[in-house]
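Q: I have 320 residues here and want to know how they pack in 3D. Can you give me a structure?
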Amino acid sequence: MTYVGIDLHANNMVIVAINSNGEVIREAKLPTSQRALEDFFNTFDGPIKAVVECTSNWYWLSDWCRANGVDLRLAHAKMVKAISYAKVKTDTVDAKTLAELLSADLIPEAYQVQHDRRELRELTHGRLRMVQWRGKLQSALWGQAIKYNVQISGNQWRQLNQLQQWLGSQLPPAANLQARLLIEQMSQLQSHIHRIEEEIERQVPFGEVAERLMAVPGLGKVGAWTILAEIGDITRFPSAKQFTSYCRLVPGAKDSGGSHRHKSGNKDGNRYLRAAFGQAAVSAYTHYKVVKKFYRKIKRRSGRPEPWSLRSWPKASGIC
């Protein structure tokens, strides 16, 4: 068996191959291309296992390995860093470390999205990013208006043309110009979001599973498909607690010496699932009285005021 570690970058990649005894057979720094990959792997006989860290540009490598019969593992970059420490860190050292961990069966694997769900996943990623950008523009516009004691209500966000006309009569010329430009950007983003949602609706649905998710208050087609595309096989989570942790819905913990502290803002897990569930929560709060009543009960118990975003923000999207 040959074990290959690949340190992949946008313009080049360093590849180190070792045998079952841990001896380096070959190492090379190559341009990031399929031709260079073919030339490297064609020098080996017998079965090959390869590993690469879960950077943002591994899709093409996964496709090539699947087409050429190479077993590719996707390594969790943060976990690999925790397992292997090196004082001298180079691309060659990283590739060799990956190969050694693979030969010892110590690779902490990241989830490798199924090929047939990749297009849907990319569409839902793009939509969520645009929704977040739109939210930043809304915050900027609200901050611009509040300087002049102009309050924008939740319903006004739904009619951007009317909002622009109304702000024109409330704000001085310089502030009104900035407000008009922000509204134009929001309107363009909204049209792009609708285009992505139309493309998402053309995707093959998940059938009965998606229908069950859409029955949950606050979840629509796009929200349900986002969750299904990100989760993949739900059986990869041994328990519900591990799943909610993966969704970034629970705080971390830092317990030491008898002290117990929570770590808020933990970035371990899937940020797209967190955003999808967050949108669903806002939508459920806005449109379901039972959810709103329950939320306010919890907020009174915690002693914290209700966030302004839930009092004034509109629903994230038409079919969230």
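Q: Anything worth noting?
A: Strands lie at 2-8, 12-18, 24-31, 48-53, 71-75, 252-256, 259-263. Confidence is low (pLDDT under 50) at residues 311-319.
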